[in-house]
Amino acid sequence: MNWSAMSSGRMWAELAPYASHPARSRGRRVWEPAASDRNHFQRDRDRIVHSTAFRRLVYKTQVFLNHEGDLFRTRLTHSLEVAQLARSMARGLALHEDLVEALALAHDLGHTPFGHAGQDVLNACMKPYGGFEHNLQSLRVVDVLEQRYPDFDGLNLCFETREGILKHCPMRVARHIEALEPHGVAHRFIQGLQPSLEAQLCNLADEIAYNAHDVDDGVRSGLISLEQLLQVPLVLRFHEETEQAHPGLARQGGRRLLSEVLRRMLSSQVHDLMAQTRERLSRAQPANDQQARVGTPLVAFSPAMRAGITELKRFLFRALYRHPQVVATTRRAQGVVRDLFAAYTDFPGELPTEYAQRPDLPRAVCDYIAGMTDRFALREHHRLTGQRVFV
Ligand code: MG
Fold this sequence. Notes:
The protein is an all-alpha fold. The protein has helices at 3-8, 40-49, 52-56, 75-93, 97-106, 115-125, 134-145, 159-165, 171-180, 187-191, 197-221, 226-229, 233-245, 249-252, 256-284, 303-321, 324-346, 353-356, 361-371, 374-385. The chain has a domain at 198-323. Helix content is 61%, strand content 0%. It is globular and about 65 Å long. The N and C termini lie far apart (58 Å).
């Protein structure tokens, strides 16, 4: 096998010309010899799986807090579902499967405990010191915070993986990153370019995954009902299809009906995305991965599917994410994060030494809290305030 075949993880001919290719990687921040048996993107994927931040995802909230039930998605199972969807679509589109897998498994590493509730409070606490954003934090985790290697901080991932992790970035932050790393991971925001096709694919796989599993978990929790869901045209369409194909399934009770509706809805989004993306690619004919970044995104849903998904998201926002019970839980979780931030800032001695000794104390406190799992945050909150929340 020649080196280019080995370094792609499969034969050249199988990868589209516009796919990212490890042999053309812009490399790592600290030079390392290439691995003999894995391509650069595989190696990145493996480093992510072995990281501490990845293991913590199992006890971090997606929508439902970790202690609310064992069957709800956590950040870990969500990331695995995104990876599964992204890989199978990447294979169909001849994009680099190892890169999409690395991106999918890393995309939520920077999430705080308690989901968006935690992120909002940390952002408010950090306002005077540059704020907090989970996507930037994901990059910070792989660039700085993981400490496993003797020669560098972070995981020393390839440029393509780091750039794909940075999904959004306000211009102010992009300029700041660009000053530290010229022509680096934020450069595309300044130039108005799209991310790699693999990163585009991963972002939409994330959306497909959470729309389906939030419906599933929402119904499982009892906060939304199937009847309510039938107000959403996308759900209604697959409910009707299912009833036609399996008359009597509704009368059986149990979870098979909803599972089948969601399975059909998810597959139709995957097929729609693949068809629309193929069409855009054949129209644009990008000769290489750089040309694929110019103009509007090439990985996309059809306008009709996009409209259907937008309506589903609106429903989820109204009926689930803003459900009084979810809002009440969110408020309590926000209180926990706020108390932790105040406690560590007032008493840095309560932090582990490596955080307490950092000259940038507020950022150190923020990094420490952001890395916590839900249950560790609650335990620390009890230790520092004597209060028990969610018991
Ligand atoms: Mg996600």
